[in-house]
What we know:
Blueprint: H1 6-18, H2 28-38, E1 44-46, H3 52-63, E2 67-75, E3 81-89, H4 91-96, H5 110-113, H6 117-125
Antiparallel strand pairs: 1-3, 2-3
Helix pairs in contact: 1-2
Amino acid sequence: MPPVTVEDLTKAIRRTLVAHGKLPADLAETVAIQVLNYFGPEGVVLDNVLASEDRDIFYKLEEEGLLSSEVENTTVDKGKNWRIHYWLLNSSAIVAHESPLEGEDTGPESVYRKLSQEGWARSRASR
């Protein structure tokens, strides 16, 4: 599978976090860039390198299926157990959000059809 681009992740974030009211639409691309900056070419990042604010975003993306996490237990010197938490990009889920959903209105006029009656009333009142 080809690497996930900023555009791919931005679309997926708009269709998940933004659509579910968990993130403002104007932050979708910023969050996509922020998240992809953590991931290397392998699509894996260690949890302990994340800032706490970024970890919160990772958990939200995990809830939407765009990221997943894994825990690995290993034994280090003197028999101590060490737990390593990884984050992984779910590339197939991210790319799946790229194509329009079945029955989704994607034409140029769809912007106007999606406006509520209240939205139309406000635009007339502001003139």
